[in-house]
Amino acid sequence: MNSPWLTMIGLGEDGSFSAAAQTALAGSEIVYGSARHFDLVPELSGEKRLWPSPFAKVFEDLAALKGRSVAVLATGDPQWYGIGSSLARHFPSTDMTVFPAPSAFQLAAARLGWAVQECECLSVHGRPVDRLRCHLYPGARLLALTSNGHAPRDVAKLLQDEGYGASRMTVLEHLGGEKERIVSGIAKEWSKDVADFHTLGIEAVASPGTAVNSRIPGLPDEAFRHDGKMTKQEVRAVTLAALKPYPGALLWDIGSGCGSVAIEWLRAADRTKAIGLEPHKERRLMAAENASSLGVPHLDLIDTTAPDGLHDLPEPNAIFIGGGLTANGVLETCLSALKSGGCLVANAVTLESEAVLLNAYQQHGGDLKRLSVQQASAVGGLTGWRPAMPVTQWSFVKS
After folding, report:
1. CB 99 within 8 A of CB 20
2. pTM score over 0.85
């Protein structure tokens, strides 16, 4: 087993860190950190190195130092939206020792008197604030890392747009240091100037009549901007149930249209990823707009068609085929690319695409079903049922 050579040290706002971390730092030949970190820990025996530009070069630089004693300075807990989580993707845990300090989330919850396990702990640092939309519901408590002092104004506007203008926002600046300050206010009245380095707390209060968008699949069709070509609410809910979203899983959404299935996939579980293939520019624009308004702006939309556009994509955990079933080689390419244990779901509304699914069912097994939905509507002065086009669905789990 390798001996740890890379030490991550979390610092408090006042530069405090544990005695064990002090010992490790004293024995480090090379120390990486920001100018702010070096100001907090001025007396170092090791060589100081600032983060390179571009930042991604640091992983190559650190790999070249393997076997030497290297320390990395971080803020708070390096493993919670910090450098540690990035390093863990490049180096095995046996290479690293981590000395965390209390995280910004822990300190903010302590000041606010909130239970951390009952809060949504998020980061919009270097990420669109639209991500917060997915986590809003009446009574939600959000703790968010932000990018700068202007971010609370952006968040306040977002809350008003979503019908949560009565929410209380609390900015907690420089927690644990001499410059600590707490500023609170109501979102719809927010006009305060705050420091760049802060954590934002939100107590979500919905205005009367505000619609609540559940993260359980089956959002109303009206939640999406579309041109009529979309997987409708009831069928979408059944489709997502068959796709089985889980944290960290990747979906290919072929014939993404307005993005409804991929968006519901991203909302359904944390850290999910989705790639939508859609050759029509207007629909890609609609899908991007829908993704932002529903809190998942990280939906990856690609201008391509299947099967040609599938070959260089990362291996998926699930695939949804909502269009293009009759194109030569689409189903075969998808079945080949799907990870073991992954789910493939395909929907058909035409006889030609239905024939493709019947053939797939006969060759591979899985589940074949027909979904039919009828909605009540006016018939003269009375009420009757109006059926939507039936949808044939084939679902398959790769062994």
Report:
1. yes
2. yes
